[in-house]
Design brief:
The protein has six helices and five strands; from the N terminus they run H-H-E-H-E-E-H-H-E-E-H. It has one domain. By secondary structure, the chain is α+β, with helices and mostly antiparallel strands.
């Protein structure tokens, strides 16, 4: 019974943190949103490295797709932290990428379960948020600081 309650609580928390659908608010500007997160102290525990757009698309299984603009900063190996912000020509393309991003996060959970279990709390709180034709994917150490950076 206790495990069931814990699983339910985790599911509700993830649902609250991961925006579904088109999302309210202004679309993200990829470069501005990523930089705001990178420059806010405490959001990440290490310096993230920028990935080439083609490499980023490969990470998401989107090799044949081409967003209008995308930035991705990734952990060089020590953590599961990342920030990806992508803008698409249509909301349908953004919705499809949102699905790919959720699958990407789930893959990272499975990859880290035995390898880096200390990263699972970050991944359990991962944010995949779509606003219009843009999508934000965030795995970080301090989600409150991240939300403040994005809202500010």
């Amino acid at each position: 019974m206790r495990q069931w309650k814990t699983a339910l609580a985790c599911g509700l928390l993830c649902g609250a943190l991961c925006a579904c659908g088109g999302g309210a608010g202004e679309p993200f500007d990829p470069e501005t949103a990523a930089q705001a997160l990178l420059e806010t102290p405490g959001v990440f525990t290490e310096t993230l490295e920028r990935l080439d757009q083609d490499v980023m698309l490969g990470e998401y299984g989107w090799e044949d797709q081409d967003p209008a603009e995308a930035v991705c900063y990734y952990s060089p190996g020590g953590t599961a932290e990342e920030v990806t912000v992508a803008a698409f020509e249509s909301e349908d393309a953004a919705a499809a990428f949102e699905e790919a991003a959720r699958a990407h996060i789930q893959d990272k959970v499975e990859e880290n379960r035995d390898y880096r279990p200390a990263e699972l709390p970050k991944l359990d709180k991962a944010v995949v948020e779509r606003r219009g034709g843009t999508v934000l994917v965030l795995v970080c150490a301090d989600y409150d600081a991240a939300r403040s950076a994005l809202d500010g």
